[in-house]
Every structure is written in structure tokens, then in C-alpha cells.
Amino acid sequence: MSESAAMPEGAIVLDHVTKSYGDRVILDDVSCSIPSGQTTVLLGPSGTGKSTLIRLAVGLAAQEKGDVIVLGKNVQSLERKELLKLRQRFGMLFQDGALFGSISVADNIGFPLKHVAKKPAPEVDARVQELLELVGLPGVGGRTPDALSGGQRKRVALARAIALEPEIVFFDEPTSGLDPQTSASIDALINEMQARLGLSFVVITHDVQSAGAIAHQVGMLFGGKLLAYGPKDEVFASTDPTVRGFLDREPNL
Ligand SMILES: Nc1ncnc2c1ncn2[C@@H]1O[C@H](COP(=O)(O)OP(=O)(O)OP(=O)(O)O)[C@@H](O)[C@H]1O
Ligand SMILES: [Mg+2]
């Protein structure tokens, strides 16, 4: 597929994508269009290829079949330089936060501003302060990440992910390892950021409650297939037994 005029809509489009590791098919002929300016949540049990889907979208892995189109670019066809340019339009919040442990919170948030965007120090400092306030953590910039709670670390990771004003932010399990109240506060922060910045958020989670709190769109991956995909209310009202089983936490799924 070329990058010509008739580009499909959507921040991210998967068009008949198949991805295997060895002889194990992880994503099996998956197609969907993830809209821009909304929060799309990908649900599914462990090992169903949720993280793999993000890896394809950011060009960290390659599919054998089909096309992955991100912000109008066919990811697999990009030269390395173009891919790096495209990646600057994404923010990533990794499952474990992936903060640098030996530098301060402020330096963590400022890292992409200083080293990727090459902003001058005063500009970095001002933006870091602004981001700390945005995520509800004014005043903690001087601490190292180990002096923060798990929920605070997620907030710092979110601040770093949006530092370069990306168009798409990928969240891999933003509420994993958090207690229910802290999870709810991260969900609220995600909603506030989404409403304020109008970005495209793609969130991976096992947490059905969290999906209910933040999603506009829900996709449910199961056994390599996208079993359900659409507006949250529609997917949550699904009568498909497998989708229901996951949403209702049936043990023998
Ligand atoms: N680089 C790799 N080489 C071989 N197998 C891999 C590789 N990356 C992932 N896999 C396998 O592909 C499957 C899907 O992995 P993936 O990380 O996408 O799952 P997931 O849905 O994100 O799971 P979880 O919810 O546990 O994070 C798993 O069985 C995993 O072991
Ligand atoms: Mg994963």
C-alpha cells in the first residue's frame, strides 16, 4: 500500500495484519481503525498480542502480512530516518514506567526535551515545571524516582510521555500494580489529559473497570483475533460468549 491520496481515516489503521513469532501466530488477520482524538482501549488476556500490536505501530516489530498505517504513514515501508521522525510524534508510557532510576524526576521528564528536541536548558526547566503541575506533582522534580509511590511514578512517566506534545500516546498497562484508588486517580488523570489535549490515546490493559472509566473505543483481543471492536457501550453490551466471559471475569474462559 502506498502513501497516496486515498489514505484510510484513523490515527492508526491495521489492514489485515498477521504477526507470528516462529510458528506461533500472535495476531491473525487483524483489521481496525483507531480514531484520532479519542481514547481507545485494547483489552485481552495475557499473551494475546496487545503489546505486540503497539510494537508494530511504533516500528519495533514487523508483521508478515498486511499494513500498519500510523498518522498516514505505512510504518513498515519507512526508511529508518522517517521512522525516527514518525516516532517523535508518539509518546510511550511503558508497563513499568521505565524511568531512569539514577536521575531526578525533573531530568527524567526533561530527557526528551533536552536530548531529542535539543531545547535550551531554561526552556526545558520551564516545560518540566509545567508538566509536573499538569500531572499533579508540583515540587517533586528534585527527587529520584525511588522516592515516589507507584502511582506518582506513573504520573511522572505520563509527564515524560507527553513532554514533546505527541499526537498519539501509547500506554501499556498504566494501572498495573496500583491499588484501586490509585488506579482510579490515574484513570481520572488520563481522562483529564485526553480532554484537555485532545490527543489520540491507545491504552492496553487487563483492567475492565479501568477500560470502562477511560475508553471511547474498546477492542478485545483473544486468540490472535480482534473479537470485538467499537464504541465502548457496544462492546460492553456484547453477547459474544468469549467477550462476555472476559468482561464478566469468568474463571474458565
Ligand atoms: N520477541 C518475541 N519473540 C518471541 N515471542 C514473543 C516476542 N514478543 C512476544 N512474544 C510472545 O508473543 C505473545 C504475545 O505477547 P505480547 O507481549 O504481545 O502479549 P500481551 O497481550 O501484551 O500480554 P500481557 O498482557 O501479559 O502483557 C506471547 O506469547 C509472547 O511470549
Ligand atoms: Mg503486554
Task: Give the SSE map.
Blueprint (H helix, E strand, L loop, with lengths): L11 E10 L2 E11 L4 E5 L6 H8 L7 E6 L2 E2 L5 H8 L2 E4 L11 H12 L4 H14 L15 H13 L5 E5 L7 H18 L2 E6 L2 H7 L2 E6 L2 E7 H5 L4 H7 L6
Helix pairs in contact: 3-4, 3-5, 4-5
Bound molecules: adenosine-5'-triphosphate (ATP) and magnesium ion.
Adenosine-5'-triphosphate binds next to helix 1.
Structural features, described:
The protein is an alpha/beta fold. It has two domains: 8-89 and 167-186 and 198-253, P-loop containing nucleotide triphosphate hydrolases (Rossmann fold), CATH 3.40.50.300; 96-165. It is built from nine helices and ten strands. The chain has helices spanning 50-57, 80-87, 105-116, 121-134, 150-162, 180-197, 208-214, 232-236, 241-247; strands spanning 12-21, 24-34, 39-43, 65-70, 73-74, 90-93, 168-172, 200-205, 217-222, 225-231. The strands form two sheets. Strands 6-7-8-3-9-10 form a six-stranded mixed sheet, with helices on both faces. It has a four-stranded antiparallel sheet with strand order 2-1-4-5, with helices on one face. Strand 1 and strand 2 (24-34) form a beta hairpin. Helix 3 (105-116) runs parallel beside helix 5 (150-162). 38% of the residues are buried. Residues 1-8 have low confidence and may be disordered. The chain binds adenosine-5'-triphosphate and magnesium ion.
